[in-house]
Specification:
Layout (H helix, E strand, L loop, with lengths): L10 E4 L2 E4 H12 L7 E6 L4 E6 L3 E6 L1
Antiparallel strand pairs: 1-2, 3-4, 4-5
Length: 65
């Protein structure tokens, strides 16, 4: 029996802000600025107001939430 896909929504809420998974991915891609993304890991640190990303396992950066 194949597992059925579950529609999900992730929203990080902190202080007076809220950010969705799609917004995080979009902001990381924009901050990276290139198209050669094979993998993208995002680490959110709400206490710093920043998210950190790693592209293709070796390029990293961050952006403001």
């Amino acid at each position: 029996m194949a597992a059925s896909k579950v529609n999900t929504k992730i929203e990080l809420q902190f202080g007076d802000k809220a950010v969705t998974e799609d917004q995080l991915v979009s902001a990381a891609k924009k901050a990276y600025g290139k198209k050669d993304i094979k993998s993208l890991d995002i680490y959110v640190k709400p206490e710093e107001g920043r998210a950190y990303y790693v592209v293709n396992g070796d390029v990293n950066g961050n952006f403001e939430l």
